[in-house]
Specification:
516 residues, alpha/beta, five-stranded antiparallel sheet, 16% strand
């Protein structure tokens, strides 16, 4: 038990002390010993009870704590000592005083034994649920871990309170709207944060006592751990034990980059949940967001900056995210698997405004960043799929058009299809339309640029003026080239299907870097 906590417990029992010496000491005390003679060696983990005449000399350089049941001795000479002396009233019962101290230290020994099991569970690599189940067996009461978005991250397996309220919440995986209102009305989050230890609260909704403690990463609260007084009443030492256990929960969650990188970011974990669990039923998420004041519109886009999108930038991910959240105001954002992700919610007839796109492109280009934008979608259950679209847009865009900063998946979906096909059949060059391959080889042999001409023709079908302007040639020159192209390829380019086949072949050649 920490020395300061022991002093606090003694004070609660009416044992008040005047302290002298090193007041910064706060050792973990495990044992208590009555001094009957001068000691040669002292242990910082032992509490020493001594009469005034057996106290060590003030010059002793040892960070120990001594209790003295005398007030008449000259304690002022210990003011600059490396150890601390706590002087109690000599009128107290020494037997009762010692028994109370031993009870406190016995409790901490029980805590120490339990913590040994919990630390083993933490380092077993079996995850949060295993840690919770181990703690449930030790404490004997159900335990719940909840993030700031009122989602249950883990709950005791096997112990479900005989309470409809808890059973319904266990089924949905989220605290109900009634529960959120109760938490807000009673200011529980604020009370737990101010307590700085396990906070006891009698929950009127379930008619049970609860211990609640904050779960923190680097000093930032990212959730809470709660134990319900369901199977038996709390023991006297549960409050201290539970506080130590909450620190292990923090350590376990810190292993997950999602919590480590997004600590304190509102709504982040909802987006992580949508990406991590494809096709998840999202009604509960929508209800939680609504309860927290965030109203989604009818269509969504995902913007992603994966590692390749910021690897050449000098900015850290957190700095990039902080700036982009002002450009893309009102969005949900997160760092997931080292990828910066934004969920944009718009009405069906809306997209990102020209101003937003201008700000985004300028910021990305200035800082050597690259972002992908998914197609729009309307069902949140599909978020994982469209996340992959946004990431793929960057990966393909960097490969095919490295000078750009923003890549729309709609511009690269054919390349994605080719990438998928190539995994099954590496010989995709054999899919190139034979006429186009003849034209490509003719250019190689004769130094002509008929490939450039056909590419512009396919971009602007039926627009000879635009084609000629793009190629910087006269219309008559274009007519000559097209006649030559028809002769080489054997294609008149008058049917839509012919143009589609040649367009696809151009994409294949670009994907294979045969052309730029």
């Amino acid at each position: 038990m920490e020395y300061i906590q022991l002093l606090s417990k003694l004070k609660e029992q009416g044992y008040c002390a005047q302290t002298y010496g090193n007041r910064r000491l706060n050792p973990d005390l495990i044992y208590a010993r009555i001094l009957t003679g001068q000691n040669q060696a002292y242990s910082p983990s032992t509490l020493y009870l001594a009469p005034a005449h057996l106290l060590p000399e003030p010059e002793l350089d040892s960070p120990i704590v001594l209790f003295c049941l005398e007030q008449s001795a000259d304690f002022d000479r210990y003011e600059k000592s490396a150890f601390q002396v706590a002087a109690f009233d000599s009128g107290i019962s020494q037997g009762e005083f010692l028994n109370f101290i031993l009870e406190c230290l016995t409790e901490i020994q029980q805590i120490t034994a339990g913590m040994h099991l919990l630390v083993n569970a933490l380092f077993s690599g079996n995850g949060l649920q295993y840690l919770i189940d181990t703690a449930t067996n030790i404490f004997g009461n159900p335990i719940y871990v909840i993030d700031l978005q009122y989602k249950y991250l883990a709950m005791s397996d096997g112990i479900v309170p005989d309470n409809i309220f808890f059973q319904e919440e266990s089924a949905t995986g989220y605290i109900s709207e009634t529960g959120i209102q109760y938490i807000t009305r009673n200011h529980l989050d604020e009370k737990v944060q101010q307590a700085n230890h396990a906070y006891f609260h009698y929950n009127e909704l379930v008619q049970k006592g609860t211990l609640i403690d904050a779960v923190e990463i680097q000093g930032v609260c990212i959730g809470h751990v709660m134990m319900l007084e369901s199977e038996h009443a709390f023991y006297d030492f549960d409050k201290e034990f539970f506080h130590r256990f909450s620190k292990l929960i923090s350590m376990e969650l810190q292993k997950d980059s999602s919590f480590r990188q997004n600590k304190g970011v509102m709504y982040s974990y909802f987006l992580i949940d949508l990406i991590k669990h494809p096709k998840k039923h999202t009604n509960d998420i929508l209800e939680r967001l609504k309860a927290m004041g965030y109203h989604l519109k009818e269509t969504f886009y995902l913007i992603a900056i994966p590692t390749v999108g910021y690897s050449t930038s000098d900015l850290k991910m957190e700095v990039i995210l902080e700036r982009m959240r002002f450009i893309l105001s009102g969005s949900i954002y997160v760092i997931y698997e080292n990828t910066i992700v934004f969920l944009i919610s718009r009405n069906l007839n809306q997209r990102l405004s020209d101003y937003e796109m201008s700000q985004l492109e300028n910021y990305l280009k200035t800082n050597s960043l690259k972002a992908g934008i998914s197609n729009f979608y309307q069902n949140l259950e599909d978020t994982a799929c469209f996340y992959q679209q946004a990431v793929s847009a960057v990966l393909l865009g960097v490969k095919l058009d490295p000078a750009s900063s923003v890549y729309y998946f709609s511009d690269y979906y054919l390349y994605k299809m080719l990438e998928t096909l190539e995994k099954e059949d590496p010989q995709i060059q054999f899919l190139i339309q034979p006429g186009l391959m003849k034209l490509y080889l003719y250019d190689k042999e004769h130094g002509t640029d008929f490939m450039d001409t056909i590419i512009e023709f396919l971009k602007h079908p039926g627009q000879p003026g635009s084609i000629a302007d793009a190629l910087h040639i006269h219309k008559n020159t274009l007519l000559y080239r097209m006649g030559k192209i028809r002769q080489i390829t054997g294609c008149n380019f008058t049917e839509g299907e012919e143009c589609m086949n040649y367009n696809l072949s151009v994409k294949i050649m670009k994907y294979l870097h045969l052309i730029e």
